[in-house]
UniProtKB/TrEMBL annotation:
GO terms for cellular component: membrane. Keywords: Membrane, Transmembrane, Transmembrane helix. The keyword Transmembrane applies. It holds the Pfam family Acyltransferase. The keyword Membrane applies. The lineage of its organism: Eukaryota, Metazoa, Chordata, Craniata, Vertebrata. It comes from Pelusios castaneus. Signal peptide: none annotated. GO terms for molecular function: acyltransferase activity. Residues 103-225 form the Phospholipid/glycerol acyltransferase domain. InterPro entries: Plipid/glycerol_acylTrfase. This is Phospholipid/glycerol acyltransferase domain-containing protein. The chain crosses the membrane at residues 30-63.
Amino acid sequence: MTYWHQTESVINLTWLTYILEKWTSLEYHYLYYIAFSLWMLSTVFFVPHLIFISYFLLLNLLLYIYKRKNGLDEDLSSKSWDKGRFMLASIISKLGKLWHGYEVHGMEKIPEGPGLLVYYHGPLPVDYGFFICNLYLQTGRFSYSTIDHFLFKYPGIQLFLKLFNAVHCGRDETIEILKNGNLLGVAPGGAREAFCGDENYNLMWYNRKGFAQVAIDAKVPIIPLFTQNIREGYRALGRIRLFRWFYERTRMLLIPEYGGFPVKLRTYVGDPIPYDPNITATELVEKTKNAIEMLRDRHQKLPGSIPRALLERFHKHQKED
């Protein structure tokens, strides 16, 4: 940058500062402290988002390196991608074990055929990611996962999402996935449950019953999942009226969060709810709710507590295994 460009930048900055001082009636150093405080707050409250996306970007970069090194094509269903999938699943699984002491209980309850995995949606669903990676490493099965369409708009993570069978599709495509013998994960509460829930872990499904109708039409069982302490590891501020209003108006996944605390995470697999041709979607929703709430009441101390969840890293006590 030349001397004249530097001088021009300084003049513009001085002019902007002068305008702000006149507009706000505050001196420069007060404006500086206010701006710095706002920047710090935004950094703290969006740290989980930033880490989450940065982690995706890093994994996606590893996949591109793997793809380039092995000269692979875009057919992600090819066996040639298995080593890459195994590599990333191992990294994610080890991270879960290292940071959260992550465990899965009841993996043997998952049937060999197709099934709909229905789980409680935490503020940041890292638990579900750990679960599907452990499922793959232990059984060789990789579940499909329904995710918010907004995630597909993030640049630089598309290869990772495709390799890990993330989908955002309609009812017919979802039924087809299940009829082809696959597992499919879904969180009926979605982003609203993630952002607006609290430490009492109440399900926020409202009138959603599409997942139940899909299970009935595909003639598959529902397998309930619940992760202990997921709301203690990550906390969202969606219960604040302004942020709730913002989400309801935009449906953007930008609600401030904080956390990343290394609390103990355990995912519990409940008994499958078998396919019943005589049950209605409404009745199946209630059965699924009851199953997840039973897992919650059995394994989660309510209301959740961050200090208690941290202490659980240091002992093997479990609430009624």
